[in-house]
Recover the amino acids of this structure.
């Protein structure tokens, strides 16, 4: 993979940024405790693996067929990353992870809820289809690279989710404050915009 360090840093910023996954885990943990939060996290991570497989076997076939297609995907990804960064930076939301009453959840399976939510989220699919190819070297095994990056992404995600669930009972008031959410949005926005610009202006071999 090309520039693995950049991939790891950017992935961590994306994973730790408040969003739908964080909101679902927060709600489930507050309703059902740590066990429910862990199951939700595992479901969300499993959904990431599904998107990884789809991206790996779908994109690899396309990228191996045409060098032009490879360049188009990379530039489309750069534009999309900058869009995500600008959206995060300009975001004025203060209730992404709003406090939720601690009442027993009626959902039968936290794992299934997390899995279905992630798999059926089109934004996640678009993200994987545009994010992972940025680090692919076209002269090497594309499918293997995409699978490896997807697995790394999932491992980092499940690690962060588990840490978040573990500490949420102690830090939930702080984690759900608008100021913390705004800081994460701004930081993520700067990183995504910067990386998108770097990708757009660098010369591709």
């Amino acid at each position: 993979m090309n520039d693995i360090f950049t991939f790891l840093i950017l992935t961590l910023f994306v994973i730790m940024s408040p969003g739908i996954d964080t909101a679902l885990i927060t709600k489930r943990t507050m309703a059902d405790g740590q066990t429910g939060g862990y199951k939700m996290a595992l479901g969300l991570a499993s959904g990431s693996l599904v998107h990884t497989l789809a991206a790996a076997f779908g994109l690899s076939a396309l990228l191996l067929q045409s060098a032009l297609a490879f360049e188009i995907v990379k530039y489309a990804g750069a534009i999309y990353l900058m869009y995500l960064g600008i959206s995060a930076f300009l975001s004025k939301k203060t209730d992404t992870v709003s406090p939720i009453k601690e009442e027993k959840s009626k959902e039968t399976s936290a794992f299934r809820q997390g899995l279905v939510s992630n798999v059926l989220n089109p934004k996640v699919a678009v993200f994987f289809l545009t994010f992972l190819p940025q680090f692919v070297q076209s002269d090497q095994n594309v499918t293997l690279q995409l699978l490896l990056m997807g697995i790394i992404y999932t491992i980092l995600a499940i690690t962060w989710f588990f840490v978040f669930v573990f500490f949420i009972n102690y830090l939930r008031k702080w984690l759900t404050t608008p100021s913390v959410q705004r800081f994460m949005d701004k930081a993520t926005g700067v990183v995504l915009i910067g990386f998108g610009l770097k990708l757009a202006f660098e010369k591709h071999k």
User: Anything to note?
Assistant: The chain is about 80% helix and 0% strand.
